[in-house]
Amino acid sequence: MRQSLHVTRPALFILLLFTLTAPRLHALEKQPAATYHTRRMDLAQKLNGGVAVLFAAEEPLLDFMPYRQDANFYYLTGWNEPGAALMIVADAPTATQPRHYREVLFLPTRNLRMEKYTGIKLDAATPNAAQTAGVDEVLPMTSLPLELNKLISWIVSLHRTSGPSPTLRKPSPSLAGRLLHSATKPRRPRKMSPA
């Protein structure tokens, strides 16, 4: 009997060691900030003077569900928190109104009550937020509609100077606000119909 107990102690130790290290095996690996910046620059070159806006994954609706960041968002930012957005404005030096490369990470404002449970979060008001996040600029999420409206007004002014076009219509002034609202509102799970 004593020998079988002796054999199980190493097995229990290995099992305990495995259960403590297993969650780390599934964690996302953080790359150096320069790697993410290079990926964003590569994307900007493929945009041909355009703009890309990506949103982080939503928080799970149920408390017991784990959070998993959107793969594309994480690939470009390394950011693993919900509620963020990334805007990449590609270089357009030959455009009618030239633009220079710009990358902005929009972060939600801190919720001090929730931070008691989740830990301290980074927001745009945090000193050195851009350096910590590894991006050129960090703004509050509430600034995203304003920034999108600036880009849309640039398109509208281009449309007005070049004459009417059947494919380009003047967007409504609240288009950016509607985009942000539809992207950040919680989605309800779909009801499954019986097969």
- Largest sheet features: 4 strands, mixed
How many beta-strand elements? 4
| Approximate helicity band | 40-55%
Principal-axes geometry comes out as elongated
Total helices: the number is: 7
Specify the CATH homologous superfamily of the domain at 28-142: Creatinase/prolidase N-terminal domain
Radius of gyration: 23 Å
Output the CATH class name of the domain at 28-142: Alpha Beta
Strand percent estimate: 5-15%
The secondary-structure element order is: HHEHEEHHEHH
Helix/strand structural class: alpha+beta
| CATH-defined topology of the domain at 28-142 | Creatine Amidinohydrolase, Chain A, domain 1
Question: Average pLDDT across residues?
Answer: 76
Q: In the CATH classification, which architecture of the domain at 28-142 applies?
A: 3-Layer(aba) Sandwich
Low-pLDDT segments, ≥5 res:
23-27, 158-173
N-to-C span: 55 Å
Strand adjacency order, main sheet: 1-2-3-4
3D structure, described in words:
The chain is an alpha+beta fold. It has a domain at 28-142: Creatinase/prolidase N-terminal domain (Creatine Amidinohydrolase, Chain A, domain 1), CATH 3.40.350. The chain has seven helices and four strands, in the order ααβαββααβαα. The chain has helices at 2-25, 33-46, 71-77, 115-118, 129-133, 144-162, 175-184, and strands at residues 51-55, 85-89, 102-107, 137-140. Strands 1-2-3-4 form a four-stranded mixed sheet. α6 (144-162) runs antiparallel to α7. 15% of the residues are buried.
